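Appendix B. Worked example

We walk through a single record from start to finish. Start with the input: the chain for histidine kinase, Helcococcus kunzii ATCC 51366, length 296.
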Amino acid sequence: MKKIFENIKMKSKELLFVALNLIMFFIIMWLFDVRKEVFIVLSLMSFISIIFYLLSTFDSLEKEKYTKERIVDLEKKIRELEEKNTETRNDIKDYFLSWIHQIKTPITSLNLLAETLNENERNQIKMISLSIENYTDMALSYLNLSDFSADINIKTFELSDIVKKLIRKYRVHFIETNTKLIFKDFNKMVISDKKYLELMLEQIINNAVKYASGKEVYIGYKDNYLYIKDTGYGIKNDEIKMIFNRGYSSENSINPNKSSGIGLYIVKRISQKLNHRVLVDSTIGHSTEFRIYFND
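Next comes the structure step. The output line below is what the pipeline stores for this chain.
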């Protein structure tokens, strides 16, 4: 009942307008000496109209109440689904963490075993173990993409430190594939998340080494962007926009290397979160250059 009166109060202007019209109506009837029977009938009609108005107000309140209850119920179900989804995602993440931990143990053993072999065999094993490690890290990163905003740690650091670390990591790949690295040293302090930026750059460098096998890879800093360029197979113009799509693999017939379609998708997601614009410039059969922009 309180709600009804509140709603009537909200529509007081409408009621006042109706009341004034009724008063004017009764005054006119009185001035023109309308018959008593007619006056009673018209009064009853006016009263009935007011009753209908109040009933419609009550009906609208009931509908509003029902709608609010439905909204509350739906919000509750959404929260329950989100909690269930989070629980499932955490279970999957825990499984992968356990799996990655288990698989890193034989990788470490494999690297130790490689030290007893000749240089060529040792480098071959290190290349394989590095690829396995990269895929396991990529799988874990993919799982973290859905809620990694909470894991971001923004700070200022030297960009070249990350680049040099990755170059050392892929040194064996450069040597074994006879790929020439042209690294132009630089000093550049950037504001970003060090862990995720390193992961993003690793995917691009890994692609550059893979697709420029036996050719050249150029890395350096120019103006306000880091460039990673390879003189490999190149990318068709109509494919450049698609290479960042999840699961996309180039259909370039001259490129024998097939990708997982996850690496550059991770690059796109991280770059969006860290606000680092990534542009690609490529000429088929000549070169591909990735540019990662940093705001000063």
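Two observations about the output. The chain is about 60% helix and 15% strand. The mean pLDDT is 77.
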